[in-house]
Every structure is written in structure tokens, then in C-alpha cells.
Amino acid sequence: FEAGPGANGDSSLNTKALNDVDFGGLSWDVYHKGDTFFSFESFGAFNLFNVPDGVTFVNPLEYAFWEADQKSAVPTNKFYDPLNSDKNLTLDRANLGNLFHTDAVYMSKYNNLNYFFAGGWSRAVGSGVDEMGTGLLTSWWDKPQTNDGYSIYLGARYDFPNHPFKVGLEYNHGTKYWIALTPGNDDLYASKLATRGDVIEAYTIWDIPSGDMISRFSKAFVRLGAQYYKYDYTGSGFWLGAPVKIADVAKDPLNAQFYAPVDHMTQIYLSIEAWF
User: Against a cut of 0.85, is the pTM above it?
Assistant: First the structure.
């Protein structure tokens, strides 16, 4: 992300200091021979901020003071100043810190049984908070912190010999501060690999035999599966705000969430996929 003109605090452009967001890392296929594959990757996102480019959110704190001023017999006009970007009724963008992600996956095959193991580690290094007191995995003006999250992901699939059918089972678990950075997922509702909790998925695949008629690289198949999500903490897949234990959300008004959290859900899907 390029912050653009005025990013260094140029008051003539009425903008706060906002640093560019940079991203970099490496992806290494350490070993690939036959059915065995081992891969490692590590990357970082630097100077992450709170509000997407081109999106405006109302700042409820500023709006509450402004509304009180409008109703007051003697308005103070001390809080709301349309020429001051800090008090413009909107949530201004602010850099919140850096995010690092490392993971590795090992996959192989024994006879007709395919299997894999994967593990991930995320580290959120907070350096600031926005006008609402939100930071990287922190809330309510808490001091910026460094929080580590972890994930495990494993699964197996059995390919029936001389038949186009396959059955598989997968499981993944994410800890309280786990951040997967998987916004491009194709799960129906929410990324299963970003879950702060547990997900179990069972599926079956039927290979469409005409797939290799297009080219030797192509294949087509129908997949039917079910996923069960059990969330332990709020904010799965999100780096803003402190994760709250699902069981504690209703115990404290300060635990209120922007989106209504769920503790569990089930998804059943049917897909037709083609690779070429």
C-alpha cells in the first residue's frame, strides 16, 4: 500500500502521518520427489493499518460527543472540528504494527493412502492504536503487545484402487492469537484455516473420467463434503481487536463484537471442479 502525498504528516493536506505498507518473504520447496513433498514459507507485512483504502467508518465516540453538542443549550464545539482530521466523525487510518507468518507442510503417500501434516506460527507485533483504541490483537487502548499464534493442520485421503472414488478426513486447530492471512479462501462462510478453535472436515470425491481427454494436465471431479467448526475465540481471520473467549462474550459489555460471534456451525457443500 502506497500512502501517497502527505503521508509524512503534511498538515497542508490535512492528513495524519501514515506509513506505506510493505510485504515480503520467501517460499521454498525444500523437497519434491515422487509423492513426497516438503515446503516452507515465511513472510512479513509491515505497517498494517486499521481501515481499508477507500472505505469510511463512523467514529462512534466522536459522533456521540458531536451529537451531545448539538443538543446542548450552550454548545462547546470543543470536540468536533471539521478542519481537524482527529475529530471529523470518521475513524482515521493509523499504522498499528507488523505481522509475521511462518508455516511448513509435509505430504506423502503410502500405497493408496495420501496424508499430510502442516504447522503454522503467526506473530503480531503491535506499535500503535487507532482512535477507538484498537490495535493488532488488542482493544480499549491496551498497550501495544507482541502476541504469538499457532496452528496445526493434518489430513488423509484414501483413493479406492481401480475406482474413481476417494474419501478424505481433515482436522485443523488454531490458538487464541492465530492469524492465517487467508482472505482469498473458497470456504462457503469463513476460512477454516483461520479458525481460532477446531474444524473437522469429511469429504468424498468422484473423478470425472473425461478430464484427461482435454490434456494430460487436466482433471475434473465432483466433491461432496461437510465441515464442522467449533470456535474458541472471536475474531478468526482478523488482526484487529483482542480475541475474546466465546463463553465470555456475554459476561462483559466491553466484550461486544462488531459482528455477532458464533460458537459452532456446520457446512455441507457440493462442488464441481475442473483443472486444466
Answer: no
